[in-house]
């Protein structure tokens, strides 16, 4: 999957990689079905791999875990994303953030397809970011780009929102390629740009602009990423959107006990141990929590690592 991008770990507020056929978060809070666990979204959503369970190609020749987002125009369809980012940029809403998706848009359906609903908590009005005409945006002047966001192919799309900038803007990239500094209809605390505590992924309350899609990874982070960082994201990978090169661990000894800890953003990682690195037999540490483990060493030498499942 290439050299991982080093991102400021503390700024990644949410990531969802759809491993294990579920909405669980790699970082942050799990997604929820917008219309509840027994609603239309849950009944129509599918999970699997590109190699076995869905009719879309692998990503760069590698099988990938994906979630199939149902088509259909119902306002009941969508996924509630509670991102956990505090209001910023000098306003009362989240004015500075970056949304990244590894996504495959179906080749048939309406001429536009919603990627996120920001303005309406009940999903009763128009979505706020759309795929359309091989570009993405919203409204007049919102769809400028190179036409690289084609349906029927995997892409990594990124939108860095900065409603506190002068002028306020959304910087758009596709597969590491600059598309546009979108400045039309932007402002501090703008209801269609600045985030409330939650948003609805793939929701469209107008019930006219949705398509079937497949997603391999979704990430949201606090702050608008720089153009150099957006370019470094590159294209989609089967391993998902990189969070950081590796979480840093720390260890301390307390008598016969060893305490190992790691940062909160790596709460989805698994702590493993082995008694040998030349003939390793890595196994999960049973006592490990989300951010630390207190261990009685099993022998004179023991090695530990954090692994992203």
Notes on the protein architecture:
The two termini are 15 Å apart. The protein has helices at residues 40-44, 227-233, and strands at 12-16, 32-33, 46-49, 65-69, 79-82, 96-105, 112-117, 129-132, 135-137, 154-162, 169-174, 177-182, 198-201, 213-222, 250-254, 257-261, 270-274, 283-284, 292-295, 303-307. The relative contact order is 0.20. The strands form 4 sheets. Strands 1, 3, 4, 6, 10, 11, 12 and 14 form an 8-stranded antiparallel beta sheet that branches. It has 309 residues and is mainly β.
What distinguishing features does this structure have?
mainly beta, 309 residues, eight-stranded antiparallel sheet, six-stranded antiparallel sheet
Task: Output mean pLDDT.
Answer: 91
* Strand segment count: 20
Q: What is the beta-strand fraction?
A: 25-35%
Tell me the structural class. mainly beta
- Helix amount: under 10%
The protein's oligomeric status is single chain
Gyration radius (Cα, Å) is: 20 Å
Summarize the helix and strand pattern as letters: EEHEEEEEEEEEEEEHEEEEEE
How far is the N terminus from the C terminus? 15 Å
Spans with pLDDT under 50 lasting ≥5 residues?
A: 6-10
Globally, the shape reads: globular
Instruction: Report the total helices.
Output: 2
Biggest β-sheet description: 8 strands, antiparallel
